[in-house]
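Q: what sequence does this backbone want?
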């Protein structure tokens, strides 16, 4: 029986616009990266911490 590896969050540099954070999140949740990018753009001005969270994810989350 083959071992399955757990899902890991990573920055997808193959389908990136800035750093691949949204694309990596989309891969993790198996959704379209455009939806994640749109959600980020819409929520960023509402709560204000989106840019800081994106930069932190850019630094912390490893590349694929």
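A:
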């Amino acid at each position: 029986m083959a071992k399955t590896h757990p899902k890991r969050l990573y920055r997808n540099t193959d389908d990136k616009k800035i750093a691949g954070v949204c694309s990596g999140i989309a891969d993790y949740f198996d959704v379209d990266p455009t939806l994640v990018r749109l959600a980020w753009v819409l929520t960023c001005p509402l709560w204000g911490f989106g840019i800081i969270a994106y930069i932190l994810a850019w630094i912390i989350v490893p590349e694929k």
